[in-house]
């Protein structure tokens, strides 16, 4: 079977880009299938750093085809910006990059709505979105009557459609109590988006058909998840989530390729936890430990530059995400960041209203009351920069990785100890920790 997928198992930013870059060598096609310009992937390749948002990082390898599939919400200005940046550095995309004509388009009204509506959760909470118009664009997609897909931009009826939607949105904005944007100018928006459409024309196609042909021909496809499973719209920490299925369940719906074509699912975890934006995070450390992690891990958002909230590894959350995403094996990233701590904690259960549980709550109010139950493991003082094999890792670092594997019940096959490709330890699934095993009882 030709498909591999890489899924973040926390709240995003798990360093999936590095892993995808390594795996790309063994694949013919890399697919981005959900989310949009809210994601940020950093890849260090041949000594150069690349920051990508929507275009799959496979684009950096000339032999690889890349697909932006129909489940993505596409801001054409951002894609074109990214293409210009890549072309200026000598990366050729013609014939290699395909963008789905089914992808829904992010318009200026979506950016305005994102700004106006974040902070309007009932009860007064703030999601803390990336402000890229992601939620409003997905809302219009599901609502259908105000949606415009990339393929629509090439039809004569597009002008009238933009006029219809912009007029409707202008009416909504005038009813807004404060902070509404200047009225939208449909003719100007249509002209701008028509120009974008022309620039993108050589790349726009039916990517579902392309991918179905590819898997049937045995081409090896790598599905690159964006964000993390805990931000999944249906299965994450709702309402503090993104608007797509960012866990493993989204691969088929976002790409159009049925799950039967995927035979390897790799769950990516940081050796600790981070979160950007609002919402509960039981193991958050708003103290010196949090600062240690943030500074050593350079935990600032790739897209928004916001400082990330940092804390201990949460095995309750990670076990849930791994099960939800059908994960076969784990990649533990940024292990080096935990160096220099005397002790390291892992949350192995929650206590909610005095009851101990290993179950990740489905209701946000329960997660807000969850008190982490920690195990404490000895830390290590050595820097890991120069480590190149498992045997070189300090024994306490190895024990820490093994404990993560044990608590989640999946083997850890990749350990990353720095941004460079050479700073990656690949382990044999047969010998690296726990093979498939039954999950711990739900209330253990
Ligand atoms: P949105 O996706 O911009 O609507 O933001 C919704 C929530 O998801 C916010 O808490 C964001 O900080 C978070 N989020 C979205 N994309 C990412 C990402 O790539 N990494 C980490 N958090 C993200």
Textual characterization of the structure:
It is a single chain. The chain is of the alpha/beta class and 444 residues long. 29% of the residues lie in helices and 20% in strands. The chain is built from twelve helices and 20 strands. Strands 9-7-5-2-10-1-11-15-19-20 form a ten-stranded mixed sheet, sandwiched between helices. Strand 19 (412-416) and strand 20 form a beta hairpin. It is globular. The structure holds inosinic acid (IMP). The site of inosinic acid (IMP) has 20 residues, from helix 4.
List keywords for this structure.
single chain; 444 residues; alpha/beta; 10-stranded mixed beta sheet
Give me the secondary-structure topology.
Layout: E1 3-8, H1 16-24, E2 29-32, E3 41-45, E4 48-52, E5 65-68, E6 73-74, H2 76-88, E7 97-100, E8 104-105, H3 108-117, H4 134-143, H5 158-174, H6 186-200, E9 204-205, H7 207-216, E10 221-224, H8 250-255, E11 262-270, E12 273-275, H9 288-296, E13 309-311, E14 313-314, H10 315-324, E15 329-333, E16 343-352, E17 355-357, H11 364-369, E18 371-378, H12 395-408, E19 412-416, E20 424-426
Parallel strand pairs: 1-10, 1-11, 2-5, 2-10, 5-7, 6-8, 7-9, 11-15, 14-16, 15-19
Antiparallel strand pairs: 3-4, 12-13, 16-17, 16-18, 19-20
The structure holds inosinic acid.
Inosinic acid is lined by residues 11-13, 38-40, 127-130, 132, 134-135, 227, 231, 240, 242-243, 276-277.
